[in-house]
Amino acid sequence: MGGVSTPHVLLGLLAGGSRHGYELKRAHDERLPRARPLAFGQVYATLGRLERDGLVAAAGQDRVGGPDRTAYALTDQGRVTLDQWLSTVEAPMPYVASTLFAKVVVALLVADVDRARSYLIAQRAAHTARLRELTTVKGDPAATLSDVVAADFAIAHLDADLRWLHATLGRVADWHREVHP
Amino acid sequence: MTQLQARGVVRAYGPTPALRGVTLEVAEGEIVAVTGPSGCGKSTLLHCLAGILRPDVGEVTWRGHRIDTWSEAARSRLRRTEFGVLFQFGQLVAELTAAENVALPLLLAGTGRREARTAALTWLERFGVAEVADVRPGEMSGGQQQRCATARALVTEPRVLFADEPTGALDTLTGEQVLTQLVRLAREQRTAVVLVTHEPRIAAYADREIVLRDGLVDHTGLGLDVPLAGGAR
User: Fold this and answer.
1) Are A26 and A54 in contact (CB under 8 A)?
2) What are phi and psi of B225, to 5 degrees?
3) Contact B204 A128 (CB under 8 A)
């Protein structure tokens, strides 16, 4: 699956009513904790494109003790676009496009089994450390359900990677023989 | 402070070696995950540490006393008073209700019937299954059974809980709920836990992970016999 579609997420955050760019950024960070950071500049640039395409429209301005703040609202067309996005099933892993996987392949091509194995071992340690970190996040009494669900997502993927790392460690010698017959 | 220690433990089943010289320590209140692939000796190690099996060679000591040389009766008494044991399938007594199952270790240790029932109800409440107190295992869900089994393993407030794949038979969410409660209550009463699992995400709840490979502790870097920052405290 590809990266997160920021335009669609912003449309979703506007579905409940109009919001300023600043409010959108805050709502994004609250609802998608641990997401790749979203810069204010990116919010405003995305809103600009959505407005150009008729998916959002300016819905008033205020100037309360600060710079101009334009609120944006979802248009009918925006709502249709959002609905289409939500109704589309994501292609499950259409390509095996993982740096993890590619790095082991390249290690086997340019070096030897030991190089590939030491990379796998180092990566396993890093994955395990991250898995523990996220498990701690979930156990924090202050964690919201958004935090827990976000951590769950990462934990499930790390767990799957760790299983793959383990299995590949067991296969790497045979794999090397296949790559270098 | 080290409470439980294995030194050079070797154990075979007939000609098949299961443990080939395992040395490890478990401190008071520490949660240690024992991981490794199938057949690496995890469960055998747990059975040796808990005094269920005797090593062929090596020692197991509890608070400085060598227990592997004790009689079965003495080791059994130790398991009733200081240890708790929990398996993948809770192994509740089918003829007894949840409350009777949980009260059982207390009754065996000489606690009065009324007091044992009160404690059992408290522990069932802690694990969120008070509603099945008077229900027999056959009429409970898998998650309810495992919660009862966990309550039974902790009701004597043991110094060490030995848990062998305790969430292995549960779905992810139920397993996580049981494990979270187990870890929280173990930490509250400073019960050490030896947690056997083959799942990385279950091991992540421990303070420390010991990886076994072919009957030995794996120090090669594939294993991580090191304390890691941020155990799930």
Assistant:
1) no
2) -80, 60
3) yes
Give the start-to-end residue ranges of the domains of chain B. 1-82+161-169+189-228
Residue ranges per structural domain of chain A: 6-87, 99-179
In CATH terms, A6-87 corresponds, of 1.10.10.10, 1.10.287.620, 1.10.3210.10, 2.40.50.100, to 1.10.10.10
- Chain A residues close to B222, C-beta within 8 Å: 121, 124, 169
Q: What is the ipTM of this complex?
A: 0.78
Global confidence as pTM = 0.82
Structure tokens at A69: 């703040």
Query: In angstroms, rounded to a whole number, what is the distance separating the alpha carbons of residues A108 and A105?
Result: 5
State whether A159 and B228 contact (CB < 8 Å): no
* Segment A67-106, tens digit of pLDDT: 668 999 999 999 999 999 999 999 888 888 888 899 888 9
CATH number for the segment(s) B1-82+161-169+189-228 = 3.40.50.300
Rg (CA), chain A: 22
